[in-house]
Every structure is written in structure tokens, then in C-alpha cells.
Design brief:
With 450 residues, the protein is an alpha/beta fold. The chain has two domains: 31-64 and 345-448, Aspartate Aminotransferase, domain 1, CATH 3.90.1150.10; 69-343, 3-Layer(aba) Sandwich (Aspartate Aminotransferase, domain 2). The chain contains 17 helices and 15 strands. It has helices spanning 6-14, 22-28, 54-57, 66-78, 91-103, 117-134, 155-160, 164-167, 185-188, 195-213, 239-249, 271-275, 302-315, 328-343, 346-362, 399-409, 432-448; strands spanning 33-37, 40-43, 48-51, 110-114, 142-146, 177-180, 218-223, 253-257, 281-284, 296-300, 370-376, 379-384, 412-413, 415-417, 421-424. The strands form three sheets. The protein has a seven-stranded mixed beta sheet, sandwiched between helices. A four-stranded mixed beta sheet has the order 1-2-3-13. A four-stranded antiparallel beta sheet has the order 11-12-15-14, covered by helices on one side. Strand 7 (218-223), helix 11 (239-249) and strand 8 (253-257) form a beta-alpha-beta unit. The longest helix is centred in the middle third of the chain and has 19 residues, at 195-213. The protein is globular. The structure holds pyridoxal-5'-phosphate. The site of pyridoxal-5'-phosphate has 16 residues, from helix 3 and helix 6. InterPro entries: Aminotrans_3, PyrdxlP-dep_Trfase, PyrdxlP-dep_Trfase_major, PyrdxlP-dep_Trfase_small. Keywords: Aminotransferase, Pyridoxal phosphate, Transferase. Pfam families: Aminotran_3 (PF00202). It comes from Lutibaculum baratangense AMV1.
Amino acid sequence: MSPLSNLAVRDVETLIHPYTNLAQHRETGPLVLERGQGIRVYDSNGKDYIEGLAGLWCTSLGYGNEELVEAAAAQMRKLSFTHIFGGKSHDPAIELAEKLKEIAPAEISKVFFTSSGSEANDTQVKLVWYYNNALGRPEKKKIIARQRGYHGVTIASASLTGLPANHGDFDLPIKNIMHTDCPHPYRGMEAGESEEDFSRRLAQNLEEMILREGPETVAAFIAEPVMGAGGVIIPPKGYFPAIQEVLRKYDVLMIDDEVICGFGRLGTMFGAQTLDIRPDTVSVAKALSSAYQPIGAVMVNEAVYQAMVEESRKLGTFGHGYTYSGHPVAAAVAIKTLEIYERENIVGQVAAKAPHFARRIQGFADHPLVGDARALGLIGALELVANKETKAGFTKPGVAAKLASLCEAEGLILRAIFGETLAICPPLIITEAEIDELADRLGRALDQCE
Ligand code: PLP
């Protein structure tokens, strides 16, 4: 192992890294990145990497976008901060809320801003409870999420997340949050079952869960259109229509977590439009600003909003909000980001490039280590297995992580996620030639993996 550089030593001595094996990090040290341009980032030795996960599924417009830099600088010069508590307001927050309402995948009444996806989903939980208290149904509080879903790391959003690492030894999930099936065709479909049958079976299981718990106690269901961190899981055909039929029957709100799928990732503005989701409320973050600023939002329908109005009338205030809710600089950057998406027809471009992306990803399906190669829009994954026939996993875990480090050596940043899966989610501005370059680098890494 090469000795750590000066920066790496300082890192190890000072930083706690999220989602990192902290013991191992002391030995290996960090990859220190210095700058970025287009779809590439460069380390402190000048080596280039294709950012194949768009940072953390967020840098849709890539790096070095001067328009976004300028939007931030101009707003900082004009009014670097004002909060929007207690009736104060400012131009960028108003304009961004108007724009989100206009493009939202549902009849959205109002928008509440956060700084992250976790804060957005935490807010969702509080709003669901607030809503049912306002309606005089204090017992209707349970929220059903899904195994392997990812919704963040705050106490409520980590509880919604359905991954063991987010619960184990953090004493989560909190009460009133439960998890139904993960809609993973590769792992979950039974022999002879069609995708539609599988969807119906999952909807039936959900209905049984609601009946077991008592429909009068179940308030909401939360889902990502395509699960991201839980394994890039593309639901089977007919999944959301079948699920939503059950939700409607028992008056259960549909919360659509668009933190990854929102703003073009699946080739439509929102994942809801690709997968036929009819949400009551929506969470967004990440690509809302192409990660040039931390910003997220919760969008709610009129019924939820009216309940909030009534509760705040009764209690004297709507007692929730972050210092940086609607931060003017973040909002200005988000407005510019949405303007660029529209002007450059980014969503249409994703739809046009998606078949090429899918062909290149699915081209790895024959590799002996690849059990399943899947893609939709510009998100995809390779699920690695020890035995393609039986789909059996590895006796020793960490094969996807090893593949990710082989990719890194080849100049490609990807991420090993749950289920020995390697996630691929490049900036939306990637060209077909760059998709080829990404796939070639991935292919070279895969061939070295054992
Ligand atoms: N929801 C989804 C679908 C996500 O993928 C993420 C983060 O990856 C979150 C919520 C949490 O967002 P954040 O990390 O900004 O808190």
C-alpha cells in the first residue's frame, strides 16, 4: 500500500466520513478530488475520472457550469440571506415555488423548502401526522415504506429507509413506520409469474398488511419511482397502479420520493410520469440544483395544505421550518437549473440517449459475474452473483466494492450499493460517445474482477 499523501493524512486525522468503514479508512485514506469539468472530476494528481454516479445521483448538469456559478454569485451580491419565517419572503423562493408547481407531476397546491432529501422526507412524516390530527383521526399515523427503499438518514427518514445499515444499532425504526416488499423482479418474481402477476401479488401483500394493522391506523405509503441506493430497482410492469388501487381503497396518502428520479433521470421530468404514480405529496432535492447548492422541497396537494392551515390556525403557528428553508442563493441556483433543463431539453435528451445507455449496460449481462444488468432512463446497475444459475451471492461480501475500486483505477467513479450491486447514474449531460467511454472503462474493470 502506498503511503498516504499529506492531504490524506490530514483527512484521516480530522474527518468523519459518512457511509464509510471508519476503521478501514484509517488504513486506505481518501481519494482527494480537486476539480471538475463536464462529466469528469480530477484528483490531486491530475488523474481524470468519469463521474459515473453524478456525485451522489445529483450533479445532473455536470461540473463547471458557469451559468450556475453566476446565478449563485449574483444572488449572493444582491441578498445573500433572508429567512422566510413568520411572513418574510423573497423573489427566488416565490419564483422557484411557482416553477415547481407548474412542472410538478400532480395537482400541487404549495411548496415547502428544505436543504436536503432527508429533511424533505422528515417533513413528509411530520405533515402526515399533522394532517391526520387536523382531520380528527389521531389514530391514523402509520406510514408504510418498503424494504430496501432509501429515504435519508434523519431519525424519521432513516426509519422510512428499509436498509439494515440505517437501522442496526441506531435503535431505528421509530414506531408507526413499517416496511412492505421490495418490488425486485430479479429476486422476487416466482417461476412462471409475469411482471403483472408479481405486481398484483405485491399489492395484495400490501393490502393484507393494511388490513392486519387496521386501515384506520394507516396514513401513508412512501416510495421512490426507481429505488436508488437500495439497489437501482426498477419495479415490475403495473406495480404502481396496482399499489395505488389499494391505497385509494383505504384512504392512504401516496408520498412520491423523487429525490433521485426527479428532473429527468428516467427520461420524463419526474419518475412519476414514467411509472404512472399519482402522488398526494412529492419530495425533491439533488438535481433540483444539480447539486450546486443544497436544496430540497416538499410539494403538497390542496387537501394536505388545507389541513396545515387549520392546524396552524388552531395552534397559532405551523411549528416547523429550517433556517435555510428557501435559502435565496440555493433557490436562485435551482431556478437557473430548471431554466437550463428546459432550454436544453435535458429531459428529451435523456429519453433519446436512454436506449444506447441500456444497450451498453445490458451488454454486460453475459459476464460470468453479472446476474442482472438493468437500466431505465440514465440510471442502471449490475447486480453481481457467484452463480448465475442459482443467483447465489458470494461467500465473502464486498465484490461490488472491489469492482468499484477497480473502476476507480480505470478512471471511473461508480458506487457499490446494497445487494452486491454496482450503481451507474451519470450526469444527464453525458453524450453517447461518453456513455461508450464509461462502459469501456467499466468493462475493463469487470474483466479484472474475480
Ligand atoms: N431520498 C432518496 C430517494 C435518496 O436517494 C436520498 C439520498 O440519496 C435521500 C432521500 C436523502 O437525501 P439527502 O442525502 O440529501 O438527505
